[in-house]
Write a structure and sequence with these properties.
CATH topology of the largest domain in chain A: D-Maltodextrin-Binding Protein, domain 2
CATH class of the largest domain in chain A: Alpha Beta
Strand content of chain B: under 5%
Helix content of chain A: 40-55%
Oligomer: heterodimer
Largest sheet of chain A: 7 strands, mixed
Helix content of chain B: over 70%
Structural class of chain B: mainly alpha
Shape of chain B: globular
Radius of gyration of chain A: 24 Å
CATH architecture of the largest domain in chain A: 3-Layer(aba) Sandwich
Largest sheet of chain B: none
Number of helices of chain A: 19
CATH superfamily of the largest domain in chain A: Periplasmic binding protein-like II
Strand content of chain A: 5-15%
Number of strands of chain B: 0
Number of domains of chain A: 2
Number of helices of chain B: 15
Chain lengths: 417, 345
């Protein structure tokens, strides 16, 4: 008797669970590496939005670094013919993946949501492959920021440098007063982050586009590039001697604690200041990197969508794409992440002053043609070329190589295919 | 003349007889070993071959094969199969995902034109040489000192062996802190009052690879010590006693008798250490991250970077094949000479 009862219970349970499964709408599986603090919270918002639409969310988070581990896993899944719904991929990699013919066409969703009208042309063209949307932008990070501790500058009697020519005088004053002028972490991508700001500041937006985006050999071997390397060498003098291998957030802590005067880093550094309870404008300043006023180096995170096998999965994918593009999500996500929304029509009331400035500059630079992709954050050229150039930059920064040698090596590295 | 020939004949006969005898001895030894190794029923099987095997007998014959088959297949596929696949990829234009467009040797050309690859090779030579020599030297000295029937040997042995219980990632991170000039040894010594003391290898592009050697030797020499200790315990006491009776001093006994008799241990230790050195990835990643710049890159970190972060799978595969060649170049001649000499002896 007992046994029969048990069996019926089991059968009922199974039937119920089957019913639940069939009643369920599409499941979306999203690969990302946003696993820490504010980032994880941001992803949580997306999950809530999707669940509100009746779709179920399958998290596919692979933590570790800048997503290297995640990419390895993703490649294995795609080669095996088992691609997730969406994955966090940005920059020229979107085109590389699209070339493989594995990405879905989002034109219908884009048309319904008027994406073309909401996104600046620079952003929308990066999201398209052969005229069709294959990716959805989530946010815009600005990279050419300089984070300043005003108290340190005040104590040293220095003024915040606006050009690279003014930089040594200010840095010398900081050094004399016993501060570390530049907080820096000696990891290749951080060296590269400073370098791109130097190139932009020394040569201007047009030179940056020619040398770092179009990889024009004339620009790469020009006197301006030589000057950029000289400036880069000058900055090297102002980092402390323990910089090697330091993580970026530890360098930001040095600015927060008043040990160092400034740091060159993208606006994700703001999260560190916020977590330490610091107020923008009072406890810290976000200023343009020297000589880059009016220019904007962008680093845009986006999700690419993979071709799905069933209509149901495609429906879930369309839901996901429109959810990511919705103003509500773009607002809440970027409030958590420290970046600004990719769509232009999101209200900026709730954002802090740095984000507001970033937003204004983003729109202005997009109109003026000074909105440029960050090469250090894989937005400008394919991964192989980025890597080869990064090797030259980091080798220069960590050795006694002369600027003339560096220019020759840089030109050779830019030919890497 | 005749006598001479006869003599020679005799000699040939004699040497043949010796060879034959030796062979016979060896065969009987092998037979003995087989008898010992195989369960009695297996021997019975050979005796009553003509009659039908019972079910349990048949299971017994097939069971080992069935159990070993999956491991065999998996090894064949996931080791040798993938070596073959990597080899194929190294001749293709593969970039982000594998493709099969034949590219000849161009990936190898690109690899050897790459400055970073040469840095990695140089580092491998430096790191491999010093790591193996350091571990063998320290391991052997510790083992000899521990073998002097000292008090508390078990405790001390564990102390030296424990680094082996840590993963290379932990070792790398701990040493990263210790070697950091602003946090570790340099700061400590300076705080003691030696203000001119500098120990900044970790942040120096020229010397960073040596910090990897330090951490590697620290981690692995305890294990090598344990291997040598086991070897020392296996040395026949009577030989040493005989040498002592002959009036040999202790250093001479060690140098002439004991250390040469540890030859097989040297062989195993060398094998283990050289493959750790060639594959070294986690230690470098945790300790220096390949930096400053890429000055402490090794072939393994190079391979990872190019295959997985720079979308150059073809070149990554070429570097992986070169690593395989290096392993083969080191291990095969060594294995060959060792195995041949042990057969002769």
């Amino acid at each position: 008797m007992n046994c029969i009862q048990h069996k019926t219970k089991l059968a009922v349970a199974m039937a119920l669970s089957l019913a639940v499964f069939s009643a369920q709408a599409a499941e979306v599986e999203v690969l990302h590496w946003w696993t820490s603090g504010g980032e994880a919270k941001s992803v949580g918002e997306l999950k809530k939005l999707m669940q509100a639409k009746g779709d179920s969310w399958k998290d596919f988070a692979v933590s570790g670094g800048g997503g290297e581990n995640a990419m390895t896993v993703l490649k294995a899944r795609v080669v095996a013919g088992d691609a997730p719904t969406a994955a966090q991929i940005k920059g020229p990699s979107i085109q590389e993946w699209a070339n493989e013919g594995v990405l879905a066409n989002l034109s219908a969703v884009a048309k319904a949501g008027h994406w073309d009208a909401q996104l600046p042309p620079v952003v929308s063209s990066a999201m398209k492959y052969q005229g069709n949307y294959v990716a959805v932008p989530v946010n815009v990070h600005r990279v050419n920021w300089m984070w300043v501790n005003p108290a340190v500058f005040k104590k040293a009697g220095a003024t915040v440098p606006k050009t690279w020519a003014e930089f040594p005088a200010a840095a010398d004053k900081l050094q004399k007063a016993g501060f570390i002028p530049v907080a820096h972490g000696g990891q290749p991508w951080q060296d590269f982050t400073i370098f791109e700001s130097v190139v932009l500041g020394v040569g201007g937006a047009d030179f940056y586009k020619k040398s770092m985006v179009q990889l024009d050999q004339g620009a790469l071997q020009s006197a301006t590039m030589l000057k950029a390397f000289n400036t880069f060498r000058m900055v090297r003098k102002y980092v402390d001697k323990d910089f090697s291998g330091r993580d970026w957030n530890l360098a930001t802590q040095m600015v927060i604690q008043g040990k160092a005067g400034m740091q060159f880093m993208g606006d994700w550094a703001k999260g560190e200041f916020a977590a330490a309870g610091k107020k923008p404008g009072a406890d810290y300043l976000c200023v343009d990197a020297p000589g880059t006023k009016g220019d904007f180096t962008y680093n845009i995170d986006s999700f690419v969508m993979f071709k799905q096998k069933s209509a149901e999965a495609t429906k879930g994918q369309d839901d996901l794409a429109s959810a990511i593009m919705s103003p509500e999500f773009q607002e809440i996500f970027n409030l958590n992440k420290g970046s600004i929304p990719a769509r232009l029509d999101v209200k900026m009331d709730k954002f802090d002053d740095c984000a507001k400035k970033s937003h204004t500059d983003f729109i202005a630079s997009s109109k003026a043609g000074t909105l440029v992709p960050s090469i250090a954050h894989q937005m400008a050229v394919p991964a192989a070329t980025t890597g080869a150039i990064q090797d030259v930059v980091t080798q220069f920064f960590n050795s006694e190589m002369t600027s003339a040698q560096a220019v020759v090596k840089l030109a050779a590295a830019a030919r890497t295919k | 003349m005749r006598r001479f020939l006869a003599n020679e004949q005799f000699e040939i006969n004699c040497s043949q007889a010796v060879v034959m005898r030796a062979r016979r001895v060896r065969i009987s030894k092998i037979e003995e070993m087989v008898m010992l190794a195989s369960p009695p029923s297996a021997v019975d099987d050979t005796v009553r071959k003509p009659c039908r095997l019972s079910l349990s007998d048949r299971i017994e014959t097939w069971l080992p094969k069935i159990i070993l088959a999956p491991t065999f297949v998996v090894t064949l596929l996931f080791i040798y199969g993938f070596i073959l696949w990597t080899g194929c990829l190294s001749f293709t234009t593969s970039r982000m995902l594998p493709n099969y467009e034949f590219a000849g040797l161009s990936q190898y050309h690109a690899l050897f034109a790459n400055e970073r690859w040469w840095v990695a090779l140089k580092n491998l030579a430096l790191f491999g040489g010093l790591f193996i020599a350091g571990c063998l030297a320290i391991g052997l000295s510790l083992a000899i000192l521990l073998d002097q029937k000292i008090r508390g040997e078990g405790f001390i042995r564990s102390v030296y062996l424990y680094p082996m219980a840590l993963s290379f990632v932990v070792t790398g991170t701990a040493w990263k802190w210790m070697l950091n000039p602003g946090l570790g040894i340099e700061k400590l010594v300076r705080d003691f009052g030696f203000h001119n003391f500098t120990f900044d290898w970790l942040t120096n592009s020229e010397l960073s690879i040596y910090t990897v050697v330090i951490a590697g030797v620290w981690q692995s020499s305890g294990f090598i010590m344990a291997m040598f200790l086991a070897g020392l315990r296996g040395v026949d006491d009577s030989i040493i006693k005989a040498a002592q009776v002959d009036g040999a001093s202790l250093p001479v006994i060690y140098w002439r008798i004991i250390i040469p008799s540890l030859r097989p241990v040297f062989f195993s230790a060398f094998m283990i250490l050289s493959h750790i050195a060639i594959k070294s990835f986690d230690l470098v990643m945790a300790l220096t991250g390949g930096g400053p710049g890429f000055s402490s890159d090794t072939p393994a970190t190079f391979m990872y970077t190019f295959s997985f972060t720079r979308n150059q799978i073809g070149m990554g595969a070429a570097s992986a094949m070169m690593m395989l060649m290096i392993v083969a170049a080191v291990v095969v001649p060594f294995l060959y000479s060792e195995l041949r000499s042990s057969r002769r002896g």
